[in-house]
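Hi R.,

As promised on Friday, here is the backbone we talked about, encoded as structure tokens. Could you run it through your design pipeline when you get a chance and send me back a sequence?
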């Protein structure tokens, strides 16, 4: 599946200066985005997509959030639409346990076509928004380790193989 690159960070609710949202533009560099302070109930970031294509799947790396929701929109205007409905990525007990307890607050998740809302997934978008929440633990900031967006397979030009 071809990856749709993230090209620019947009608005963000808050960011730790050591972990700004721009880190999400380089998912292979290991940087992450985190909210500025512990105790924030919700946080979010808007990112611009390098290509306007239908979205086939998402790969999201969590960094301590209990719930994640992904929205899509257009720079031409209009309302954002829900692409991935808000869902739990950590249980309440995992959220309270913290990173030292082996709960895995940084695990990732793959969300394929069956997880995405069909109509928004089939349209083309040039912006994506991620909304996170953590109502169970007020002692740590949270955010994303990475986010990767993928277009449907077969949509890109392929070069024929050369004979050996």
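Update: got your reply. Pasting your designed sequence below so it's all in one thread:
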């Amino acid at each position: 599946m071809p990856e749709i690159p993230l090209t620019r960070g947009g608005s963000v609710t808050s960011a730790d200066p050591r972990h700004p949202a721009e880190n999400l533009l380089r998912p292979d560099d290991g940087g992450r985005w985190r909210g500025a302070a512990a105790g924030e109930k919700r946080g979010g970031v808007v990112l611009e997509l390098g290509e306007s294509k239908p979205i086939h799947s998402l790969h999201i790396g969590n960094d301590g959030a209990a719930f994640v929701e992904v929205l899509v929109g257009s720079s031409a205007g209009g309302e954002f639409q829900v692409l991935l409905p808000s869902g739990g990525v950590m249980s309440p007990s995992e959220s309270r346990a913290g990173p030292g307890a082996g709960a895995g607050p940084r695990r990732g998740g793959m969300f394929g076509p069956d997880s995405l809302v069909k109509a928004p997934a089939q349209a083309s978008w040039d912006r994506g928004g991620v909304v996170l929440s953590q109502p169970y633990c007020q002692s740590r900031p949270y955010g994303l380790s990475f986010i990767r967006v993928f277009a449907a397979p077969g949509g890109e030009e392929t070069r024929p193989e050369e004979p050996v």
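One thing I noticed while checking it: Residues 41 and 133 are 6 Å apart (CA to CA).

Thanks again,
M.
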